[in-house]
Every structure is written in C-alpha cells, then in structure tokens.
Amino acid sequence: MTDLSHPPLPGALPNKRQVAASFSRAAASYDSVAELQRAVGHQLLARLPAAIAPQRWLDMGCGTGYFSRVLAGLLPASQGLALDIAEGMLNHARPLGGAGHFIAGDAERLPLQDGSCGLIFSSLAVQWCANFDAVLSEANRVLQPGGVFAFASLCVGTLNELRESWRAADGLVHVNRFRTLEAYQQQCAASGLRVVSLARQPHVLHYPDVRSLTHELKALGAHNLNPGRPGGLTGRARIVALVDAYEQFRQAQGLPATYQVVYAVLEKPL
User: What does the record give as its pathway (predicted)?
Assistant: First the structure.
C-alpha cells in the first residue's frame, strides 16, 4: 500500500467520527505514553516568534490540554481557547484548566469569529484532517492580521519500519497514511498565509519489542484507523511474521520507530 499524497483521495484518511471516538477512548491513557507528543510540541513552541503576545490564542487539537496549560503559563496576559474534536479529550482536559474555554469543534470548520485569534497552535493534530486546505483557510479566516498559525504534523515516512514489516508479513494496511512533505509545502504556499518556516525533522523512538510499540499506539488513540484496514483479530502466524520482519530493523537501543515531523510557522499578512 502506498502512502497518501496530495490531493487527499475520498475515503483515504480516517473519517472524523472514527478519529474522535478513538482519541476519546484514549484520553485516560494518553499522557502516560505521550513522550513524542511532548517533545514535538515543545519544539514547536521554540519555533514561535520571540515577541509573540496575542490577546487570544487557540490550542487546536488540544487533546488532554497539556499544551493549553503550557501556553497559559507562557502567555499569562492572553485569553486561551482549547478545541478538540474528541469529547473524551475535552472532558479530561477541562478540569485541569489552562484555557478559559474548552470547545468541541473541527479544525476544518472552526466555530470562531473572523479575526478572533492572534495565535493558533496545533501540535500533532492536523494529520487527521482529510481536507488540509480547509484547515489553512479556516486558520486564515480566524487569525488577526499579523497573527501566527504554528503547527506540527506527520508526513510520509512516519512509522516506516512498522509499515514495511507489515508489508512483509501480509501486505495489508496496518499503518496510518500521511501526506507528503511536498503536499504541505505546496498547500501552505498557496494558502494566503506567509510561510515563515517549514521543515521536516525525524524523531526516532526505540522499543524493546513490537508489542511495546503497538500498545503505545493504542494507548495514544493513534493505532490503525485507515479505510481498508484488516478486520477482526490478527492471526498468530501473521504476528510472528511481523515480529520477524521488524527484528531486521533492530538497533543497539532497541526497535526503532521513526516519526517524520513537519514543523511550520505561518503568518497572516498585515
């Protein structure tokens, strides 16, 4: 199976109901296994303009609200909004504070007024949006002139070791598809927002065995949501074949899982 490239194919990315349900179920376990998510979000924060001081910010795809709380600490004079499509995540985040309002909503159709935010921050959320052009259009609409849309997402090459190991085991779709880096570059360039920076950076995590990786993906709610994924239980023979194939990637630190992360900072022209 090939990775999804721009433009998105109908049905090629998970539908929103599946994504919302999966992440809602993962709300209680998410923070315990979110090493990558924390690292990526903090790197995205480090890429924000040094003098940024919005009156209002939006944490788009806030999940458990970890970065809503970080943003509240960094921007104490600003009003914070936290938005997620997964009600379970919002229910987990709301009592922990950080944002002034927690909103159930879709990044492709933001329930916010035009020009209402000075900063939109989104870490590892927009890869689940099938219509990224709509995400960019909504960010442009909601930002004030001079406002910033900073996002981190995943692109083709993410979890390639797992993808290739499953390909060797049974050839079915077991790993989520992601857009190409070139698609992000092209869509951001055509968005009407100014591209301040856009770069890809790999993050590699290591695991003692395949079960540890797949357990973590399930705890994050980021296990396989693709159309065409195999239904039912995976047979023992296929699991053995997967493990054998993945062992070919083993390094001294353990089994690698590579995430290809796209970091982007876009600015709405004055």
Answer: Cofactor biosynthesis; biotin biosynthesis
Phi, psi for residue 50 in degrees, rounded to 5: -60, -35
Task: State both tokens at 109.
Answer: 């159709």
The per-residue b/e assignment along 53-73, b for 16 or more CB within 10 angstroms, e otherwise, is ebebbbbbbbbbbbbbbbbbe
pLDDT at 175: 77
16-158+177-204+260-267, what's its fold? Rossmann fold (3.40.50)
- For residues 252 and 206, give the distance between their C-alpha atoms in angstroms, rounded to a whole number: 9
pTM > 0.90: no
Find, among 115, 112, 139, the residue nearest to 125 by Cα: 139
Q: What does residue 93 show for φ and ψ, rounded to 5 degrees? A: -75, -35
Higher pLDDT, 30 or 97: 97
**Residue 212: count of CB within 10 angstroms of its CB:** 15
Encoded amino acid at 90, one letter: L
In degrees and rounded to multiples of 5, residue 204 shows phi and psi of -115, 125
Residue 247 is classified by DSSP as G
Helix H or strand E segment including 140: helix 132-142
